[in-house]
Each structure stands twice: as structure tokens, then as C-alpha cells.
């Protein structure tokens, strides 16, 4: 029997903690909760959670919570694949969201807090983390970069297609190539191609399927990502790659729009999605390549 994913909940608001804990347990998670900052790192090391919800108000200064986030990301005992979602009172401003991403958080959620959406997004991120945990299998990973190869991409992208179809969420596909050449690596030295692959590995979210589809071509399948989210994803990756690998990218995007959420007769059991209802990841990849500019 599979073990339920474990979430570490760090929040100083007792009522909100109890509400979140109740929703998470109903969603199929085990929960460990704390209201004390010194316990967060200790509990993360001891229990190795599959996800962390960290309230910025746990500290008097928001910068202290970001420092804690960076400490969690730097700790060798804690998986870098563990999603960290920060929450804050009031609206999450763009500058705050960027600071959160730089500190290693997956995202920053502000008030009003939509708990249903939060749990859905957490589910996407945790699914990705669990997938990384079991990726010791041979044949799914490009050894040179640590990214999915064609076989791994096909498998993971189809899993994401099934998941998004069940949950009624959109699925985006983005393809990247160097602006001065195609995906075959023409014009780039082997060292530059390796730096490019490493930059993609660092910038990818664990919830996404980040794949090396050519020497210098990369594809990203991003669940729960619509057209606006895909634009942000392309901008974020392009900026990070330009900064870390000194390579300018061109990108193409395709979107499978959100559909109705599918459930079976019971409230908590997801229905099996017929193949015909799932977005075709092969078509998404081809459309994204056609849209390269």
C-alpha cells in the first residue's frame, strides 16, 4: 500500500493551520505542523517531507522567512525536489513573488487564500517530487544533463496529460532552442552546450517535465499552466539561461486548455480518463516546435 505524501505545515496562525491541516488530510496527505521557526529545519531534516507550506508571518521580517527558504534549499539532507510554497497576509506583489522564486520557493500565495486551488497546485508539485524520487530507473534520464530523455519525456508528459485531464487543468508545452541555431547544437561549443543543459536543469520546476530533446533543444511540459502562465515560464527560463549560460533562446509554446474536472461516483476518487480525452503530448510538442520564433 502506497504511503500518503507528507506535508510540513509551518504557520503561526492557529485557526489557519487547523483549516489547512483538515483540507490536506481530506486530500490524502499526512501533515506535520509547527508554529516555531527553529523547528522547521529540524522537522524537515528528520521527516523529509514531500512538500512544505511556509507562512512568511512565521518571522517578524519577511527576509528572515526567505533566508529560511534558502537554508532549506541549501541543506544537503533535504531534497531539492521538495516543493516549498510560501504564504503571506495580503496580496502577493510581483516583487515579493520574484524574491520568493529567487529564494527557492515554487511560488508565493497571498490573500485571499483559495485553499482548493492551493491543494491542487500542491498536488501537482508533490507528484513531480515523488516522480523524481523514483527516477533511479534506467533509460528515463539523459546522463549528461540529468534531464528527461525522449523516453522519459514521453512517459512523464503522458502522466501529466492524464493528471491535468482528471483535474480539469491546462497543460502547456514550451520548446527552446538557441536563437542562433537549431536544436542540433550547430554554432555552439560542447562546453557551451553543457552549460546550457545545466542551466535548464537548475531553472526547471520539479512539477514540470524538463526534457533534453536534442543537443541544444529542450522541451518543458508544465501542468496547471495557461497562456499567461506559459508566457511567464518562457520569460523566466529565457532570462535565467541568458544569465547563467550566456545563451539567447527562441521559444515556441502550445497549450491544451483546461477541461471539466472528472470524478467517479465517490467524492474523493478521480475517474479514469479515456485516452481520447487526454491532450496529445506528441501534438503539443509538434505545435510548440512549429511556433518557435
Short description:
This protein is of the alpha/beta class and about 290 residues long. It has nine helices and nine strands.
Write the layout of secondary structure elements.
Elements: E1 6-10, H1 14-26, E2 30-34, H2 37-47, E3 51-55, H3 62-74, E4 84-87, H4 94-102, E5 107-109, H5 115-133, H6 150-167, E6 171-178, H7 190-203, E7 209-212, E8 218-223, H8 227-245, E9 249-256, H9 281-290
Parallel strand pairs: 1-2, 1-3, 3-4, 4-5
Antiparallel strand pairs: 6-8, 6-9, 7-8
Helix pairs in contact: 7-8
Number of strands: 9
Quickly count the domains: 2
Pattern of helices and strands: EHEHEHEHEHHEHEEHEH
What is the assembly state of the chains in this entry? single chain
Walk me through this protein's architecture.
This protein is of the alpha/beta class and about 290 residues long. The chain folds into two domains: about 5-135, Response regulator (Rossmann fold, 3-Layer(aba) Sandwich); about 150-290, Alpha-Beta Plaits. The chain has nine helices and nine strands. It has helices spanning about 15-25, 35-45, 60-75, 95-100, 115-135, 150-165, 190-205, 225-245, 280-290, and strands at about 5-10, 30-35, 50-55, 85, 105-110, 170-180, 210, 220-225, 250-255. A five-stranded parallel beta sheet has the order 2-1-3-4-5, sandwiched between helices. A four-stranded antiparallel beta sheet has the order 7-8-6-9, with helices on both faces. Strand 1 (about 5-10), helix 1 and strand 2 form a beta-alpha-beta unit. Helix 7 (about 190-205) crosses helix 8. It is globular and about 55 Å long. The relative contact order is 0.11. Mean pLDDT is about 85; it is low at about 265-270.
Amino acid at each position: 500500500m502506497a504511503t500518503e505524501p507528507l506535508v510540513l505545515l509551518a504557520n503561526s496562525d492557529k485557526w489557519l493551520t487547523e483549516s489547512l491541516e483538515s483540507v490536506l488530510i481530506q486530500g490524502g496527505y499526512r501533515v506535520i505542523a509547527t508554529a516555531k521557526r527553529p523547528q522547521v529545519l529540524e522537522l524537515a531534516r528528520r521527516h523529509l517531507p514531500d512538500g512544505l507550506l511556509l507562512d512568511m508571518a512565521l518571522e517578524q521580517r519577511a527576509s528572515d522567512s526567505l533566508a529560511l527558504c534558502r537554508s532549506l534549499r541549501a541543506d544537503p539532507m533535504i531534497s531539492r525536489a521538495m516543493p516549498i510554497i510560501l504564504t503571506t497576509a495580503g496580496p502577493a506583489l510581483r516583487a515579493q513573488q520574484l524574491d520568493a522564486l529567487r529564494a527557492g520557493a515554487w511560488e508565493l500565495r497571498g490573500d485571499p487564500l483559495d485553499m482548493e486551488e492551493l491543494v491542487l497546485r500542491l498536488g501537482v508539485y508533490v507528484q513531480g517530487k515523488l516522480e523524481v524520487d523514483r527516477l533511479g530507473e534506467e533509460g528515463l534520464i539523459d546522463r549528461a544533463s540529468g534531464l528527461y530523455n525522449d523516453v522519459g519525456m514521453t512517459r512523464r508528459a503522458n502522466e501529466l496529460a492524464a493528471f491535468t485531464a482528471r483535474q480539469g487543468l491546462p497543460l502547456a508545452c514550451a520548446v527552446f532552442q538557441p536563437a542562433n541555431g537549431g536544436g542540433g547544437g550547430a554554432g555552439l561549443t560542447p562546453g557551451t552546450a553543457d552549460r546550457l543543459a545545466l542551466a535548464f536543469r537548475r531553472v526547471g520546476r520539479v512539477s514540470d517535465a524538463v526534457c533534453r530533446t536534442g543537443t541544444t533543444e529542450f522541451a518543458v511540459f508544465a501542468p496547471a499552466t495557461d497562456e499567461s502562465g506559459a508566457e511567464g515560464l518562457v520569460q523566466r527560463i529565457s532570462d535565467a539561461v541568458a544569465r547563467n549560460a550566456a545563451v539567447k533562446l527562441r521559444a515556441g509554446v502550445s497549450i491544451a486548455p483546461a477541461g471539466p474536472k472528472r470524478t467517479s461516483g465517490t467524492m474523493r476518487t478521480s475517474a479514469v480518463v479515456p485516452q481520447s480525452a487526454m491532450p496529445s503530448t506528441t501534438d503539443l510538442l509538434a505545435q510548440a516546435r512549429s511556433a518557435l520564433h
